[in-house]
Amino acid sequence: MILTLYAVVLVLLAGLPVAMMFRNLALFNKATNATNLLAMADEEKVSVLVPARNEEISIRAALESILKYGNESLEVIVLDDCSEDRTARIVQQVMLVDTRVRLIDAIPLPEGWNGKQHACWRLAKAATHPWLLFLDADVRFTRDAIPRMIAQAKVNNIDLLSGFPTQETGTIAEKLLIPLMHFVLLGYLPIKQMRTSTDPSLSAGCGQLMLAKSEAYWRCDGHRAIQASRHDGIQLPRAFRNHELRTDIFDASDLARCRMYQNCSQVVRGLLKNATEGIASNKLIFVFTILLAGAAVLPVLSFLLVIAGVVPATNLQLSLLALATVLSWAPRVMATMRFAQSWTGTLLHPLSVLCFLILQWVAWSQNFLGIRIAWRGRR
Length: 379
What we know:
This protein has 379 residues and is an alpha/beta fold. It contains 16 helices and eight strands.
């Protein structure tokens, strides 16, 4: 009886992200490419703002992809955030061939500020156009990316629009963990409810790619409102929603690409650095441990224990555990097919979720002990 109840609970936990993913994939649309809307968007003036700290490997390619957009009113502002490499020199070289690019230098980081948030704040203050496009230096655009984003924001009257680029992965750690971005987002965020309210608890975004109306940005105090945060993907939309401003997300996989990390160490430190502002927060870690473990780890583990004869089970119980196991893989398979993710990571999905949960608890423990993860030379 207890095993039957346990198996039913696992079916329900595994079925939740399946149902949510199925529903959300229909809502998580790409940016519009309607000709009339793109023509109107081409008339808009936008400032592309790029915080750059030790980005000599990626900054030239990032700028070249931005500058494919031929709008002469475009301004691209890069803040060299105390880089110790050739970042500033490369930007200066690009400036010689395209006057739309500007470079500003960082100032000493004020007390209480996170480095990226301060860089974005200073970039916004230097901008002169009514649209502010915050872009990480490792993002690559297609030629029509900027007007499509503006058109998408305008047609839906969105104050802050955030896109999720194609996530490129190389190492096994990247293949295991990076695609969980889509699994967690689309498996547990009610997108329809998010769009019909400005509830801050439904905040979602991707810090790699964010487009804001300048007027709305200043109304909510922009990055200064989240100055100590390391997780602008959640916290900046929340700052907007705290002022009753509308935020939205979209599938940017056809107009932007990004490889966040290059090796296992970067993946681990990258996930640890801002985890406590998301799932590893005191409010969420216990809930999401149950949700994620019950949806992706326990069904497979329990099914294998029964198959191996370690745990005796009736045919009904075995069938329920088999169903839960199939359901546990379904949302990851759906995301992999939609976003062309790694099948290696998909096959190892239970291990991916287990590793992810371990990292969340490590982050929670470090925060409890007052340990802060260094990122790009800063804590």
